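Bit of a strange request maybe. I'm writing a small parser for structure token strings and I need a real example to test against, not something I typed by hand. Could someone generate the tokens for this chain?
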Amino acid sequence: MTHNGRPVARAALILMVSFLMAPAGLAAVSVHGVSCATGLSPSLHFTLLVPTSNPARRAWAAIIQSELQCLGMDVSRVELPFSPNIYDRALTPPASNIGKTFDQGGFDILFVGYNLGIDPDPYSLYHSSQFAPSGGNYYLWNNAQDDNLTNLVKGALDPAVRANYVQQWQVLANNELPSIPILYDKEIVAFDSNFPNAQSVFSLYHFPAWPPVEHLSTASGVTSLILAETGQAPGQGIVPELSTSYYDLAVSGEIFGALAIRNDTIFQNMVPELAAGTDASPGWSLAADNTTWTVNIRPNVPWQDGVCCVNATDVKFTFDLVQNDTFGSPVESFVKGIVGGIDNVTITNPGVPGVGGGTVVFHLPSPYAYFVQNILTTAILPSHILKAFSADYSLIDKSLFNNPATGSTAVSASLPRGTGPYIYKDYNSATSTNHLMKNANYFDFPDWGTSALAAKGQFGVQDYYVRTIVGGDQAVTALSSGEVDILDSQYHLETQPNFLSTWGSSKLSIYNSYGVQEMGVNMEHPVLGTGTATPYALAHPGNATAAADAARWIRQAISYSTPRENIISQLLNGYGVPSITTPVVGYYNSTSNTCQTLTQGFNCSLRPYAFNLTKAGQLLQEAGYTPVYGGPFSIYAVYAIAGVVVAAVAVGAVYILRVRRKTPAAVSTPRTSPPPTSTNPP
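Reply from user aminoacidic:
Good idea to test on real output. This should exercise your parser:
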């Protein structure tokens, strides 16, 4: 759940923290219900863990809590900062916290969001080999049918066969609910009039092909662009393989290149970047055994520090580094699971000195359908710089190369250097601004290269700035006054209808995103996950499926208690649609009974769980929980959410993402690499 195109494409996890104002549209939201239980017998207690973030998410968490309480559940809601608390409890927990309940230091149910990749690959998020903290299966789902189907999905090279497996997997996930989806996102980017093609560009190149700075045309006399985003960059760092932060992508996505890149989010073709070749004849090929990939490297591609040129050694160095335990990449488990280890990447042609290029062969242990999309989109790193850390690769994390704002120069004084269209220049701590400048030696390759961009009248921005502005009010003021040019989608401008109407539709890009908001369930929780502590399981000790059945009924009850349509219409002013599964995205319109597929293989026969407290109550009784009535809260009337929102003045949205920029991941998180996708934030 990744990074912008150039970083790791995998199901990488990317986490993004969006800070925004308290939207006026949320203040009067209320939910109506029916006669409510005052408890259950026996008691059913769990905690909703909500990031101190996006006021809209905090509001819908409160709404859902109220609905669950109406059923008699003893449901607490705790709001904690994403870092370090949610990392430590759920996403990158120490061994002592893995699988533990909230009361024990882990989590019960986590409210999160994912920015997802275009390709439907649930392997990195749900296969049992991908457990946190080294993988993206944060919910610890261990299901034999899931493992089988995710293996079949990733190994099916025929698109029609693969789509069938994806649809089967969706049926399983929709029934088992290791995560309880709430809604699929609809996003908005706001911009000024300095970039004539901005509306079409942002619609074509939104996440995971973000940011598309080189594709922008500029008005006469305009040479600079300032992008405002709600989270800090550098956050976790600029090296794509080390960061799970969405906001780092706005910087790293323009610095680093990959062997392959997605041309856009509409046609979705993969084109060779650092790999040789053209659209029609890319420099990669698959042998008859379906496991041996040969990749020819594009010659004459200079590094941004002037060293010539990218070669096979850099490619092998990168994949060796990602699979090195000491390096500590959050996408290590994913890459190892697909590539199979350091020995499985070999150089057959090292390239020519002063020219570069060469050939690398990947010997996969088994076929992988998304090899080009999720492996060849890994950011290629400069071996001539980073080999200085060979005595201890863990030091890269705190180096100037990874964190130009505060990093150490003890091993290397190099700033981050790649092959991309913009070169890192400096960081201004007073204004929280990164400054990148146009790479005059940017190379040629299909669609995205220097000549292709020039032919379209693009690549006009000479100086690119990424500035952190905390708070939606401040960001809107900065855009309106000309202090910045673009507001990132994570300001969630859908919660500010007054601004949208006054700013004007011609300076907005609105699109259906590859994003989902959900409740992640700790599948090792003794009630919600394994079900071993449920009354039904305890009453049926000889029934091998009793525990799993009871836990599933409880998760389904929670899903039936989620008023998705109300959340979308009242909190988000109609932006978004009820969701069905993660990471497969589509839009089912209940009014017109139509289905729009965003992710290949989306199962249009499935429907979102309807809001039905009666059905939810029946499922709880099946699991052995009897409602108790009477007491001060016997009538469920109106639950106002205003108090949740008004206090949220400088809070943000946590997303887990999964695919790195221009690889429509990861994955972060949020769930960056399949790599951790890609965090919403995450």
